[in-house]
Write a structure and sequence with these properties.
Layout lengths: L1 H18 L5 E7 L2 E6 L2 E8 L3 H16 L15 E5 L11 E2 L6 E6 L18 E5 L2 E8 L5 H17 L4 E9 L12 E7 L1
Antiparallel strand pairs: 1-2, 2-8, 3-6, 3-7, 4-6, 4-9, 5-9, 8-10, 9-10
Protein name: Heme-binding protein
InterPro entries: Reg_factor_effector_dom_sf, SOUL_heme-bd
Organism: Candidatus Accumulibacter phosphatis
Amino acid sequence: MRKLLLSLAIAAVPSLSSAIEEPSYEVERKIGEIEIRRYAPYVVAEVIINTPAEDAGSEAFPILAGYIFGKNKGSTKFAMTAPVTQAPEPMRLEMTAPVTQAAAPGGYRVQFVLPSEVTLDLAPEPDDARVQLREVPASTVAVIRYSGFWTQANYDEHLAELETVLRTANVGWLGEPVLARYNPPFMPWFLRRNEIWLKLQ
C-alpha cells in the first residue's frame, strides 16, 4: 500500500506543477544553490493571523480559500496558485508573495497570489472583511529551496544557510524573511517544495 501511495504521489507531481500558476520571475543569477530572482508585480489576497508560526497557514487557509472560491462581490472563483507565503507582521510589503508566512508580535501575514490576469482594480471585493487585497511591487529576492514538513528547526537551518551564503557573497538584504510553500497537504514530505525569500537591497 505504501508503494502504491508513493507511486501516486510521484505521478501527481508533474501535473500539479504544470497546472498551478506561480508569479512571474526571472532568475538573474545563482550563488551556489541560491537563486537571485526578479519578480514582476502581482496581486494577493491576504489576512493577518495572530497564532504561532506552525498554525498560521492552517488558520489562514479557509479564510483565503473562501475568497478565491467565491466569497466575494460577484461570487467570482479563481484558480489556485502557488506559493502560499507567510511573513511576520509588520513586514515590508515587497517581501510578500503567493502564500507567505513569518512571525512577529503582530502575528503573521499569510497570502494567496491571485492569477496573473487579475489586477487590483478588477479583483472583486471580499465578503470577509479580514481579507485584504494588495498589489505587490516588483522586487528582487534571494531564494533557498528545501523539502520537508514545516518545523522551526528546518526553517531555521535553511534561513541560516541562506544568510551565510549572502554574507559570504557580500550581498545585503532587508526586511523579514518570507516562507513560501507550494504543495497541498497530501504531498509527502520528501516531495514538498518550500522556499525562504530575502529581499535584496
